[in-house]
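tool_call: predict_structure(chain=1)
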Amino acid sequence: MSNPYLTAREAAAELNVSRATLYAYVSRGMIRSEPVEGSRHRLYRADDVRAILARKTAEFGHKSGSETIVATALTHDTPILDSAITLIADGELYYRGRDATELTRSSSLESVARLLWQCDDDPFASAAPDIGAFSSPLTGIARCQALLPLAAAQDLRAYTLETGNVARTGADLLRLLCAGFTSKKPSIEPIHAQLSAHWAGPGQPGGNAAKLIRAALVLCADHELNASTFTVRCVASTRATPYGAVMAGPSTLQGPRHGGQTARVAALFDEAANAESPLAAVAARLRRGERLPGFGHTLYPDGDPRCKLLRRLLSATLGSNKALTMAEELAAAASANTGLMPNVDFSLVMLQRSLDLPTIAPMGIFAIGRCAGWIAHAQEQYVRPELIRPRARYIGEQPQLAQTPLNA
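tool_result:
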C-alpha cells in the first residue's frame, strides 16, 4: 500500500512547482497537511496532490509546458523567472540566504540594503541628495511621488546602469523616500533614527521606537515577486533608470490588495476600539459577510514570520500597553473564528498604534523598507538581456473570415 502522505519536497516535485506554490495550495484548502510530531515540518496528503495534478493534466493535456506556466504563473503558482535575492520556504523568509528575522537583531535597513545589493563599496557613504527648496502640500506616499521625478531630472548619473552605480542611486532613493514621509530634507542619518525622531510620540521611552521601526524596515525589505516588485522589474527590463523603476513601486504598493491593505487594517482597529470588545468587532464583520483585512497569507499557511516577530518584539519592548493589548485580543478573536493568522499588514498597524505613530507610518515603513528590495530586483534585471513581455491567452470572439461577394 502506498504512503498516503508526501514530504514537502516530494509533493512539490510531483506537481512540478516550488514549495511556495505548494504552501499556497495548502492555504487555499486544496491540499491537506499534517504536522510531524516533534518537528517543524509537515506532511501533505498524496491524494490531494494527485487530484490537482489530474486537473492540470485534464485541462492542459500535460504536466508542464508553456500553457501551464501561462495559466498559473501570474498568481502564486509557477515561478516565472530566476532570482538570487529572496527565498520564501517552509514558512520562513531569507535574504541572500540569511534568515530575515535573525537580521532584525542588529541590522539596519542600510546594512540589509548592502546585503541585497551585494555592494563592494558602501553606497551610503556619499552625501544625501540635494532637493533644493522642494515644497509640496502633499504628505506620505503622494509627496514621494511628487519628489522622485524632481530628483530624477537632476541626476544624470542614474542613466549608468552598472550594478555599483545602481546601488549608489538606490541609497539616494531610500533617503528621498524617507524625506518624503517625514517632510524633511534628505539626511545621512540612519533611516530608522530619522523616522523615530519625526514620528514617535513624546510618551515613548528613549530608543523603543527606533528599535522597533528598525526591525520593521528590515522585515519589509523584500518579499520576492510581490506585485510592486514585479512591476519594478518590468520597468527595469525596459532599461529605464532606477528612478523610473522605483517610481512604479509606490503606485502599485498603495493598492488596497498590497501595501494599501494597512489602511483597511487600521479601519478594523478603529472598529475594535469603538466596539464593546475586539471580539464584538470581529463578530460584526463576520455576520455581515465581510473579510478581516490583515489576516491570512497564501505563502504562509502557518502564519507570517514577519508578523510573529514584530508581535514578540512589541511585547518584549513595551510590556503593558493598552493599544498592544487590544491588538492582541483582536488577533486572537479573528484567528479563533477564521483559522487565519495575522500577517505583516496587521503587525505594521499594531506597531503604529502601540507607539502612537502617525497614520502614514505603516505605509511609510512598508514603502521605504521595500525600496531596498526594489533596487536589488532592478539590479538583477539590468544585467539580463530580455524584456519582460508575457503573452495573453486570447479568449474573445474568433476573427471572421472575409466573405466573398455573391456577384463575384
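agent: The CA atoms of residues 71 and 393 lie 9 Å apart. Proceeding to next step.
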